[in-house]
Amino acid sequence: MRTLCHDLTTTTPGAAVTLEGWVHRRRELARVTFLVLRDRSGLAQVVLPAGAAVPPEETTVRVTGTATASAQAPGGVEVTEAVVELLTEPASTPPAELWRPALDVSLPTLLDHAPVLWRHPAQRARWELAAASLRGFRATLDALDFTEVTTPKFVESATESGANVFAVDYFGRPAYLAQSPQFYKQQLVGVFERVYEVGPVFRAEPHDTVRHLAEYRSLDVELGFIRDHRDVLAVLRDVLAGMLAAVADEESAVARTGARLPVVPEEIPVVHFAEALELVGAPADEPDLAPEHERALGAWALAEHGSDFLAVEGYPLLKRPFYTHPWTGGILSADTRQSEAMAPTESSNSFDLLFRGVELVTGGQRLHRPSDYDRAIRARGEDPRTYDAYLQAFRHGMPPHGGFAIGLERWVGRLVEAANIREVTLFPRDLHRLAP
Amino acid sequence: MRTLCHDLTTTTPGAAVTLEGWVHRRRELARVTFLVLRDRSGLAQVVLPAGAAVPPEETTVRVTGTATASAQAPGGVEVTEAVVELLTEPASTPPAELWRPALDVSLPTLLDHAPVLWRHPAQRARWELAAASLRGFRATLDALDFTEVTTPKFVESATESGANVFAVDYFGRPAYLAQSPQFYKQQLVGVFERVYEVGPVFRAEPHDTVRHLAEYRSLDVELGFIRDHRDVLAVLRDVLAGMLAAVADEESAVARTGARLPVVPEEIPVVHFAEALELVGAPADEPDLAPEHERALGAWALAEHGSDFLAVEGYPLLKRPFYTHPWTGGILSADTRQSEAMAPTESSNSFDLLFRGVELVTGGQRLHRPSDYDRAIRARGEDPRTYDAYLQAFRHGMPPHGGFAIGLERWVGRLVEAANIREVTLFPRDLHRLAP
C-alpha cells in the first residue's frame, strides 16, 4: 500500500511506509544523505546513511522505510531506515534543477523541454489552476441546467470568419478546421436550450504575439430564451465566480503560483462602448478598443468599482460577426444616446469582458429570426445559400439566444500574470512550434 | 419569470404563468384547440378556444395564462386563458413530425436534418445520456485524484500509427491531426501521475462501417505507479460504474431511449486472449479477435458471469502498438502458459474491454524504461530519433504506467443499442459527410 508524500505528515511515527515518486533532490552531507521524494501530492524527506548511493534526480523510485517524527523534516515526518528501489533506469540530467524554488529558464527552454519542466511544482501549479477552472466552469453550468455538447472540428466551408482557417485534405476534398463552435452551439440551443462545450479551436494566426496560439481551448456557452445580452452577462458572471471558487479550493497550487485571485462582483460593472471611448479619451468614431484602451479601462474599473472585471457592451455592429443582434436598449444613458456616433442602429447587443485590462471573453445576443439572417448576410455582400446548413435551424424555429466564449489559456495567463500565454499552455502550438 | 413545463405540474392552480418553448403539436378539435408546448424540461398542454390561430409546429412562442388542474392534462396541470406570442417568424414544416412518439426516419434524413431532428424527445435523450456519461467519467476520476489535461491536436509527424492520418497545411509546412492523445498523456503522467482528457480524435478511416467515424470523442485516461495492466482495469471498472451511475440519474432520458442499463460487476471478468480463442473455437494462432468472436465472447460472459462486460487480456504483442508492455504474469493458467502459441514473450499486458460483445475500450500497461523504447522501436524497423520529443520524458524518469481510451459515441451506441454510431453522434463526420 503506497503512502503519498502529503499523507506521510499524518502517518503514525514508527509505521512501515512505502512511497513512490521521483527523486526531487539529493543532498549529501558529511553525516547523512537526504533524498527528497516528489509525488503528485507534494514532497517527503528520506534519510539515508552518509555515502549511500542515491539515484540521479528525476529517477522514479520506490522507498520503503519507517515514518519518523522530525522537527527538521517538512511536515514534521520523514522516512528513516529507508530502502530505495529503482523503478526505471537512472534519469538523464534534467534541463533545469527542478528542486530550486523558482524555475528560472528562458521561454524557448521551457517549451523545448515541456514534458520535463512542467514537473516543477510552481509550473505544474499553473495547470492545476487551469484544471480547477474547467471543473468550476462545468459545475456552474451543470447546476444551471446546461447540457454539455461536442461539435465537429471538421467543417465544410470557411464561412464563419473567412480568414485564418487551417485547410485539411479530407478524403481528397478540402475541409477546414473549426475556428469556433459558434454555428453548432447555436443550432444546439434549438435542441437543448442551454449548451456548453470545452474543446480545441484552431486559428491560423499569422502573427507572433504573447497572447495568440494556433490552437487553444475555448469554453463556449450558448443559451436560449433570453431577453438580451444582459442575461448572457449574468450567466458569465456566475461562471467566472464558479471558476474562481474552484481555483480558490486549490490552496496549495494557488500558493505555488503566487496568484492574486480576483473577486467577482455580484454584478460586473458595465459601460457602453461609446462611454468607454469617452473614458479613455478616444475619438467617438473609433470602431474598436486598442490594447492601451483596454488597459486604461481595466485601471478605471479597479479605481472606480474595485473590480478586476469590466464589461463593455454595445460594440459597433459592423465590427462584430454577421449573426450579432443589433442594439435594443440596455443601459445607454440619454446623453450618450443622443450623440451622433451612437445612433442605436450602429450599436449591437454584444459585449467584451475585460479582465485586468485584457479582453478575456467575447459574447452577446445573436440574431434568431430567419429573415434577419437573410438581411444580415446580404448586407455583407454574401449569398445566404452559402449558409444553408446553418440556417436550417432558424427556419425551423429558434428562440432569442446568445452566448460567450472564454479562452482557457488566456484566463489562466491573466490569473497568474504570466508574461506569455505559452507559459501556461501544456504544449503550445504557434506559427513556429509543432513539437514537443 | 418563466415557468418550465416540468415545473407546471407543481404550480398552484390559479397562478398566472409564463412559459416559453417550441410549439410541439397543434390539435384542433371541434370545441377546443390544444397547443402542446415543449421546452428543455418536457411538455405542457395549453388550452385555446376552438379556431384560435396557433403558430406552426417548431415555432418558438411565449405563452402567458393560468395554471389549471386538469385530469386529462399530462402532469395534471394545463394552461388556460392563454395568450400566445411569437418569438420568431412562423416555422417551416419540419422534416418529420416531432410530436410522434417515435422518430421514424431514414438515416440520411436524420443526418441531413440533424439540427431539427435532434429536437425529438427520444432522439435528444440519447445525447442526454452521452452528457451524463461525460459527467460521470470526470466525477469518478476527479475523486481518484486525476488531473484533467488538454493535449495538442496538431502533431509534427504521423509516427504514432502511421496510417489513416489527416494532413494539414500548417503555415506552409505539413502537420497532422492527432489520432489519439497517447504520446502526450503518457508524458503528462510524468508531471501529474494521473491524467485524463476528453477531446476529439481524428481518424482518416477509409472504410464506411456502422461503427467508424472520422472524428469522435475519446475519453482518455493514463496513470502512473501501477503494478501492471490489472491496476488500469480496476480504474476502468470504477469509471464505467461512475458513468452508469450518472446515466441512471437521468431517469427521464433513460426512459425516452428505452435503454437497458447494464450493471458493472465489482470485478469485471477477465480472460486471457489464448483462453478467449479457445472459448470461441478459433485456432490458437489467430492474431486477433474477429467481430463474430467478440459477439460470442459477449454471449459467453453474460451466460457464465451474468456480465455485459468482459475484459480480454494478453493480446499478442505484435498486434499492439510499440509502446505496449510485454506480458508479466497475470492470471494466465498453467495449462495455457504451456501452449506453444502463448509463449509469455509473445503476449502483452494489454486488454480490450468488450461491452455487449463489441470492443469498447483498449488499454494496458506501457513501456516506461528508455532502453525498452529503444529496443521496441528498432524491433519495428524504425529509428528511435524519430520519436525524440516523445522519448524525452522517458529519459528523465517515468514510472510504470498504463491507461485506456473509451470512444464516447461507441459507448452510447451500445447503451441504447443503436444500429449505427451516426445515430448517437450530434453531427457525424465520415468518408462522405462534412455537413451539417
Automatic annotation (TrEMBL), chains A, B:
PROSITE patterns reported for this sequence: AA_TRNA_LIGASE_II (PS50862)
Gene3D superfamilies per UniProt: Bira Bifunctional Protein, Domain 2, Nucleic acid-binding proteins
HAMAP family named among the record's database cross-references: Asp_tRNA_synth_type2
Positions of ATP binding: 203-205, 211-213, 359, 407-410
Function: Aspartyl-tRNA synthetase with relaxed tRNA specificity since it is able to aspartylate not only its cognate tRNA(Asp) but also tRNA(Asn). Reaction proceeds in two steps: L-aspartate is first activated by ATP to form Asp-AMP and then transferred to the acceptor end of tRNA(Asp/Asn).
Highest taxon of the lineage: Bacteria
Gene: aspS
Catalytic reaction list: tRNA(Asx) + L-aspartate + ATP = L-aspartyl-tRNA(Asx) + AMP + diphosphate
Protein species of origin: Nocardioides astragali
Name of the protein: Aspartate--tRNA(Asp/Asn) ligase
Keyword Protein biosynthesis on entry: yes
Organism lineage: Bacteria, Bacillati, Actinomycetota, Actinomycetes, Propionibacteriales
